Automatic annotation (TrEMBL):
<dbReference type="GO" id="GO:0006950">
    <property type="term" value="P:response to stress"/>
</dbReference>
<dbReference type="GO" id="GO:0015035">
    <property type="term" value="F:protein-disulfide reductase activity"/>
</dbReference>
<dbReference type="Pfam" id="PF14561">
    <property type="entry name" value="TPR_20"/>
</dbReference>
<comment type="similarity">
    <text>Belongs to the thioredoxin family.</text>
</comment>
<protein>
    <recommendedName>
        <fullName>Thioredoxin</fullName>
    </recommendedName>
</protein>
<dbReference type="GO" id="GO:0005829">
    <property type="term" value="C:cytosol"/>
</dbReference>
<dbReference type="InterPro" id="IPR017937">
    <property type="entry name" value="Thioredoxin_CS"/>
</dbReference>
<feature type="domain" description="Thioredoxin">
    <location>
        <begin position="1"/>
        <end position="106"/>
    </location>
</feature>
<dbReference type="InterPro" id="IPR036249">
    <property type="entry name" value="Thioredoxin-like_sf"/>
</dbReference>
<dbReference type="InterPro" id="IPR013766">
    <property type="entry name" value="Thioredoxin_domain"/>
</dbReference>
<dbReference type="GO" id="GO:0045454">
    <property type="term" value="P:cell redox homeostasis"/>
</dbReference>
<dbReference type="Pfam" id="PF00085">
    <property type="entry name" value="Thioredoxin"/>
</dbReference>
<keyword id="KW-0249">Electron transport</keyword>
<dbReference type="Pfam" id="PF14559">
    <property type="entry name" value="TPR_19"/>
</dbReference>
<dbReference type="InterPro" id="IPR005746">
    <property type="entry name" value="Thioredoxin"/>
</dbReference>
<dbReference type="InterPro" id="IPR011990">
    <property type="entry name" value="TPR-like_helical_dom_sf"/>
</dbReference>
<keyword id="KW-1015">Disulfide bond</keyword>
Length: 282
C-alpha cells in the first residue's frame, strides 16, 4: 500500500505495533526500485500478514523523505513497536532480503501474541483466546499477553476468569505504575462497587437532587464504568474534579486517566475528554 505524510502515523507507526512494517522509499524513475519493489511485494504476499509493506513515493512525499534522511533510493526502513529498528539502501539479493525480514519477525510468545492480535482484528475471538493461551504457555510471566487476555475476558463479561488472571500477574506490574493494569483494576473495582450499589436510575436521581454530593457522583461513575458507559462516567468524574480536586485523594482525575485507557478503542472520545480535563486543570 502507498502512504503519505497525512496517513503515515496510522499506516506505519500504529500498524507496526501489531506486526513489523517495511517502508519502501522509491520513485517511478528509479531503475533499482523496479527490481526491489516486486521482490518485496512477493515476500509480503508469502508472509500472509506476518509483516506489512508500505511504499512512499519520494517525489510526492519529500517531507517524509527528508525526515528519514533518504538521499538515495531504494531506501527501506523497518519499523516495529512504533519505532524504526533497521534499514538498508539499494537492492538486496532475495536471500539477503529474506534474512533481513526474518530478523524482524517475532518468535515464540511474541509471535503467538501477534497471532492473537491479528485474530481479534479479524473478529476471531476464540482463536485470539487460544493464541494468548499459547503465548502464556511459552512464557507464563509475559504480563502484556496476560493483560491482553484479561481485557478480552472483561469485554466478554467473564469477570471471575479475569480476576483469576489478575492474580497471575507479576508484582512488577501490579505494584508498579502500569497504565494498563490501573485501567484493568479500575474496571474490576467498578464491577465490585456496582454489585453493592443501588440501581443506576436511583443514583442518577440522587445526583440530580444533590449535584455537590461527590460520593454519589463517584458511585454513579463506578456503576457506569462497570457497564462500559465511559462517556457518561467521564462526565461525572470531571464534575468531581471541577468541584473538589482533593476529594478522596484526587480520585476523580485518577479515575478519568484509567477510563482513558479502558476506552482506548474510542480515540475520539478519549481525545475529547482529555481536552476537557486539561481545560479544567489549567
Amino acid at each position: 500500500m502507498d502512504t503519505t505524510l497525512a496517513t503515515f502515523e496510522q499506516d506505519v507507526i500504529t500498524a507496526s505495533t501489531l506486526a513489523p512494517v517495511l517502508v519502501d522509499f522509491w520513485a517511478p524513475w528509479c531503475g533499482p526500485c523496479k527490481s526491489l519493489g516486486p521482490m518485496l511485494e512477493k515476500l509480503e504476499a508469502e508472509a500472509a500478514g506476518k509483516w506489512k509493506l508500505v511504499k512512499v513515493n519520494v517525489d510526492e512525499n519529500q517531507e517524509l523523505a527528508a525526515h528519514f534522511q533518504v538521499r538515495s533510493i531504494p531506501h527501506v526502513v523497518a519499523f516495529a513497536d512504533g519505532q524504526p529498528v533497521d534499514q538498508f539502501i539499494g537492492v538486496l539479493p532475495e536471500g539477503q532480503l529474506r534474512e533481513f525480514i526474518e530478523r524482524l519477525l517475532p518468535e515464540g510468545a511474541d509471535a503467538a501474541r501477534l497471532d492473537a492480535q491479528t485474530a481479534l482484528a479479524e473478529g476471531r475471538r476464540d482463536d485470539a483466546y487460544e493464541a494468548l493461551q499459547a503465548a502464556l504457555a511459552y512464557d507464563p510471566g509475559f504480563d502484556e499477553a496476560r493483560m491482553d487476555r484479561i481485557e478480552l475476558l472483561l469485554e466478554d463479561h467473564r469477570i471471575d476468569e479475569a480476576r483469576n488472571e489478575v492474580d497471575l500477574l507479576s508484582p512488577k506490574t501490579t505494584q508498579g505504575i502500569d497504565a494498563r493494569f490501573n485501567a484493568i483494576k479500575t474496571r474490576l473495582d467498578a464491577v465490585d462497587a456496582a454489585a453493592d450499589l443501588p440501581p443506576t436510575d436511583a443514583l442518577e436521581a440522587k445526583v440530580a437532587a444533590a449535584p455537590d454530593d461527590l460520593e454519589a457522583r463517584f458511585d454513579l461513575a463506578s456503576a457506569l464504568i462497570a457497564r462500559r458507559k465511559y462517556a457518561q462516567a467521564l462526565e461525572h468524574l470531571l464534575a468531581i474534579v471541577q468541584r473538589d480536586r482533593s476529594f478522596r485523594d484526587d480520585i476523580g482525575r485518577k479515575t478519568m486517566l484509567s477510563v482513558f485507557d479502558l476506552a482506548a478503542h474510542q480515540p475520539e472520545l478519549v481525545s475529547q475528554w482529555r481536552r476537557k480535563l486539561s481545560a479544567s486543570l489549567f
